[in-house]
Amino acid sequence: MKKAESSHRFAALLDSERWSGITVPILSLLLSLITASILLLILGKNPLVAFLSFLQGSGFVAKSSYGGGAGMLTDFFTFLNVLAPMLLASLGFVVAFRAGLFNIGIAGQMLASGFLATAFIGYSGMSAWAAKPLVILVGAAAGGLLGAFVGFLKYRFNIHEVVSTIMLNYIVSYLTGFFINSKFADPLTRSMKICSNEARLSWTNVQISGMKCSLPLGILLAAIAVVAVKFLFDKTVFGFELRAVGRNPLCARYTGIKVGRRIVAALMLSGILAGLAGVTYYCGYYNTIVPKSLSSMGYDAIAVALLGNSTPIGCIFASILITIFQNGSNYMSSTLGVAKEIASLITGILLLFSSCGGYFRYLAHRKLEEARDKLTAAARAGTETPRNSADGGTKEEK
Amino acid sequence: MEKVLIDGLSFAAPLFIMAMGGIYSEKSGVTNLAVEGFQGFGAFIGALVAVLLMRRMGDGSQAVIYLAMLAACVGGGLYACIHGLLCVKFRANQVISGVVVNILAVALTTFLTSAVNKQLMGGSQSSNKFILGVSNRFTVPGLSRIPVLGALFRDMYPFELIILVIAVVVWYLMYKTRFGMRLRACGENPQAVDAAGGNVDRTRFLAVMISGALSGIGGICYAYSISANFSPNIYMGYGYLAIAAMIFGNWNIPATAAVCLFFGLAKSGGYQLCLSMGLSSNYSDLFMMLPYVLTLLLLTFFSKKNHPPKAAGEAYDAGKR
Amino acid sequence: MEDYIVEMRNITKRFPGVVANDDITIQVRQGEVYALLGENGAGKSTLMSMLFGMYQPDLGEIRIAGKPVRFRSSNDATAHSIGMVHQHFKLVDNYTVAENIVLGVEPMKKAAGFLPCVDMKTANREIAELSKSYGLEVNPTDRIEDLPVSVRQRVEIMKMLYRKAEILIFDEPTAVLTPQEIEFLLKIIDGLRQSGKTIILITHKIEEIRKIADRCAILYRGRLVQVLDVRSTTTQAMANLMVGREVDFNPHKNPADFRGTVLEAEHLVVRNANRFEVVKDVSFRIRSGEIFAIAGVAGNGQVELADAIAGMTHIAGGSVKLCGQDITELPVRARTEAGIAYIPEDRQGMGVFLDFNLGENLALRKYYREPFAKKGILQFRQFETYANDLIERYDIRCGQGRRTPLRSMSGGNQQKAIIAREIEEHAKLVIFVQPTRGLDIGAIENIHRQILAERDRGTAILLVSLELDEIMELADTIGVIYNGELLKVADASTLTSHDVGRYMMGVKES
């Protein structure tokens, strides 16, 4: 009886309206960590050491030794530098997803905005007071325009946004690659000439407690974005309509909502966030662009969003988690001697389990139903009261 | 001009077999955006087998290629089980599942390639490529003498013929056998199949596996023709192109073949144009863009009219009446 | 001990939250027409679904010709010569009649001597013969999507006959037919009985039971009430047993009091996705305090007409005026603000957001303006007061008040919520499409009362319904739609249901 009780409570936690938003992702996380541990064990490595080195690489735990001028804070601020674009990108995915749309083109939107901001502002020699806000503006505009374009294609021509965003990813990649190689290439590094420090969204080489750090402006942007997105969806008419379109476009139309316009707006907003992620990424910690390479962050942001249950707050926790993996992978691979791709593998496994989240909930729900039925059957066997429907409307038989 | 036809066909054939994989899955009712991941993983398994075999049979052996194709087919089919499980058993959102499968494929194959290379070559350095070499070409004796069109039969890769044979088999399976009839019904009205005693979930799962097997073949063919290796560059987005071809072809096999041929000719035509104009190698990037731009353009004209299978995209719920 | 061909003993079946069948025992003799009578939700379909192998009973056993059986799938049932014609047809639209019938039992041949191939030629031949021998008039090579509903039903019947079924179950077969088609179907059933088949008829229509059935089992809320001989029981008795109380057959309709014209439709044309005209040149008007009912077989354009007037579909030709104002080009929200309320046929797909809660759903017409929203920001307290008010006045049963997720509410209560929301708009025109589909008698009576109350308040009402009884009971004016045209518009008192049935079949005025 005890075993049934505890599994019953476990199921209740998974299925409950209030807690499932947290419990289901935690379950996915645990399952992924266990799978990753098994994988590491097969490779002959200690999983606990591996997870510790992830944390060390991201500046949460001290390493045994540090290179010149660096310290734990350096790593931590580097972590924040990578966190900011990840958070913004995942918010971008969430905004589109809540409206029922899949923006797989975040990587391309990031690249386009980073490229345009570098090309127009990064070489312009403007002062920091002018350059930095303009970079943000150009980034948002570039991403927003691309997003709106995808939305327009869907609204007007019924083109599925997954296919169009992926096509655009490749188109942007080749187009920017072409321009970089023709005009903006640094002869030594073969990548884009570096963005000026005035235009960069990170202050590098700042001394804090004797350690060399780079302070990301992007993290502020990300924080503001989280609050704004949450407010938008929870409290505004516009957010309500976006959610409505995402849940049931037919009923949304019946309600009088202009579905097409909302779709374009949602993708534009998603693009703006992706654009901000782009400038934070390419004109921030990294100040150059390698031609024809799309950042994996654009796709990992999808993992973050799904793991975070597609909510703004969830994105915070999920992006912290995944950035720890991504950032710490270099240190982990050098300590343990495992290929650093294991970080993206863990991310992939995490994604796999997160997408099963719905199924976990469904199983839990079924289990509770069965338990409830057993109880009612036992109760009925005990008493002989005739069975009445509890409410006035009988169950509909189609 | 000849080169356009030859290269076009060699690009179109693997694209077509991937598109057929997509058709199988979608016609059974499972939205399939995972073709990209299927072809990548299938190519990985094929390349792995090839590399292992080449150590024994020597680098120049062509038999390795056929064995690699077989391995890729099996590998793709097995990997597709993930998508099948997620969509059919776990009722996950099929679009998400497709994207997840693709992301996982990249991570998994890159990691495994490095790991395997490390084992094979020893030491701390490892590459994320399997070097394969290029498949031999051959020429059909009589038909290649026909003016203009004869070029289609010249310098063919053997896999193009294999793909043609597979295409006929696949078409027959879909339209003339019992299995195919039930598969198509699953995509239109799974309730009807259930009431007739068929097993909807099992049929759909098999369809997804077939789609994985076909895509895997496409992937290894690209590895052997375009890249001459297996690397993360196998994920060029051609899987998505195949899906776009399927949409234009309105989920119909002969029409999709025509679209794939068109894509192939456009790509090789653009490249030859670039060469003949004597532009610098930078400009080849612009021409690489051509298939994707074309896809977008054609989608604007054709998406409004397309008729996807009615029941595609939703997990089958036996309880709903 | 009599020999029964079908026995279902002490059957109990539970679904999450409800006991669909509670210790039911029925015994059917060979060669009889046995009816299962009960209102919607009584458990008739569930019981027969178990006989057809689609579910397994939780308790009890099934015996065929005296032998206990366990059906794990509909294949098992078919192997025991049981067939079922479902209420919602299970047909593949883009397949032919023959392909649909043989699906699952396809005749095979060997192409080129060794390749397995489906033999459609043999199939077509066999089906043509079968159709002829039972007088069903079905062509094997027609595509389902081109066929009218009554023919599709005959395809479903042929599915059973092709598999040599001896026990045939019909689930609410007359719901989608005109009176004349019903006559034809009853003749077919009679013919099947004479060939020695056993028929089980699930229905809530007492009149049809009287015409064709031998015995009748009455179910009420999952339990068996009584099994009676049809010929020796009155209609009133059956109705009372079905509903559990005395049933009042009289609608209490006040005399007509029509004021000015509210809705004027002139030469309306509506096209479907394939650019095919589903509504061709329809003109009518509705006055204040008038119930204008559109009768017709499903699929003749009535739903598209209602959608077009509500603004959900584009009007390709003609015009619509509301109290003199031309609304033809107005978007949905402008129309609702001008005074149109719409209760759609597709409740769960169009009428509500299943994933939102009751409070949000009740406020769908108001959320964007004061006092529900100020400067674009939602005022949740207002949602709460409004929802509580409507829940109280319209008796909407919900577990958690305004926070109840709509998905967890019963169909009847979902409909109550939709009607409450739309009626509260105090619109000039209210459109009802199939408002009582699938609901029990109590709910149906309630909705009819609400419709009549609105009529008395001076609202113009457009009623689209497939239930002829409902139309005859409520309508002031009846328009019969056939193939997108209104073949007849007349005062309800001048038409009998037989007349309406004729127009529904396309018989034009002479």
Describe it:
The complex is a heterotrimer of chains A (398), B (321) and C (510). Chain A is mostly helical and 398 residues long. In chain A, 72% of the residues lie in helices and 3% in strands. Chain A has 2 domains: 1-45 and 340-370, no CATH class; 70-337, ABC transporter involved in vitamin B12 uptake, BtuC (Orthogonal Bundle), CATH 1.10.3470. In chain A, a hairpin with a 2-residue loop joins strand 1 and strand 2 (211-216). In chain A, helix 5 runs parallel beside helix 7 (161-184). Chain B is mostly helical and 321 residues long. Chain B is 69% helix and 1% strand. Chain B is built from 12 helices and 2 strands, in the order H-H-H-H-E-H-H-H-H-E-H-H-H-H. Chain B has helices at 2-27, 35-57, 63-89, 94-121, 158-176, 178-188, 190-195, 200-227, 238-248, 253-276, 282-288, 290-302; strands at residues 130-131, 229-230. A two-stranded antiparallel ribbon of chain B has the order 1-2. Chain B is globular, with a radius of gyration of 20 Å. Chain C is an alpha/beta fold and 510 residues long. Chain C folds into 3 domains: 6-243, Rossmann fold (3-Layer(aba) Sandwich), CATH 3.40.50; 250-339 and 427-510, Rossmann fold; 356-426, no CATH class. Chain C is built from 17 helices and 24 strands. A 6-stranded mixed sheet of chain C has the order 6-9-10-3-11-12, sandwiched between helices. Chain C has a 6-stranded mixed sheet with strand order 18-21-22-15-23-24, with helices on both faces. In chain C, strands 2-1-4-5 form a 4-stranded antiparallel sheet, with helices on one face. In chain C, a hairpin with a 2-residue loop joins strand 23 and strand 24. Helices cover 33% and strands 27% of the residues of chain C. Chains A and B meet through helix 7, helix 12, helix 14 and helix 15 of A and helix 3, helix 4, helix 9, helix 11 and helix 12 of B.
